[in-house]
Amino acid sequence: MYTSMTSARLTRALTVGFCVLLLALMILFPRLLAFYFAYLGASLQQKVMLAFYLCCPAAWAALVSILLLMTNIIHDRVFTAKTVFFMRLLSWCCAWVAAVCLGFGFFWAPLLVFALGAAFMTLILRVLKSVLARAVAIKEENELTI
Questions:
Q1: DSSP states of 8-77 as a string?
Q2: Could you report the per-residue pLDDT of 28-87, keeping only the tens digit for each?
Q3: Mutual orientation of helices 4-36 and 42-74 as an angle, nearest 10°?
Q4: Rounded to the nearest 10 degrees, how much is the dihedral formed by the CA atoms of 66, 55, 115, 68?
Q5: Contacts of 11 (CB under 8 A, 6+ apart)
Q6: Rounded Cα gap, residues 137 and 78, in angstroms
Q7: pTM
Q8: Which residue range(s) make up the domain with 121?
Q9: Which of 88, 71, 74 is nearest to 128 (CA)?
């Protein structure tokens, strides 16, 4: 039967899969990029590669944050300060990717689409983080009420 715990476990497993995919992409990216940009020149290829590798730390931080967030959910630790922290970290990771892609988007226009998507995800995550932070505050207040 499909439950919220099944969904959380599936999300955690998919996140591990994305970790493996990101590691493989970090190793293979120069070769893939050389194949893709063979006709555009080395200068643009280097800029896109730099943008990718500048986004990798944020991607790793986001993946680890998702893993820890899913672990908290599986163990019924949803309305905690750590959960709010993980949501905040996720939003800042998206903001970093948006800023990097916006900066490099002037050299290669498709990165502007990534910047827009990452900026929108930042907005969504900030709203969810604020809602979760308020829920944590209400929970703590209720625990103090006799």
A1: HHHHHHHHHHHHHHHHHHHHHHHHHHHHHTTTT-HHHHHHHHHHHHHHHHHHHHHHHHHHHHHHHHHTT-
A2: 988 888 877 777 677 888 899 999 999 999 999 999 999 999 999 899 898 999 999 999
A3: 170
A4: 10
A5: 66, 70
A6: 13
A7: 0.87
A8: 4-144
A9: 88
Name residue, tokens 């892609």.
101
The structure tokens listed for 83 are 């959960």
> What pLDDT digit, counting tens, does each position of 96-140 carry?
999 999 999 999 899 999 999 999 999 999 999 999 999 999 988
Write down the residue that tokens 């309305």 correspond to. Answer: 79
Handedness of CA 89, 90, 95, 101 (dihedral sign): positive
How many domains does the chain divide into?
A: 1
* Start-end of H helices in 75-145: 81-104, 110-144
- Mean predicted confidence (pLDDT) in 8-24: 93
The alpha carbons of the chain give a radius of gyration, in whole angstroms, of 19
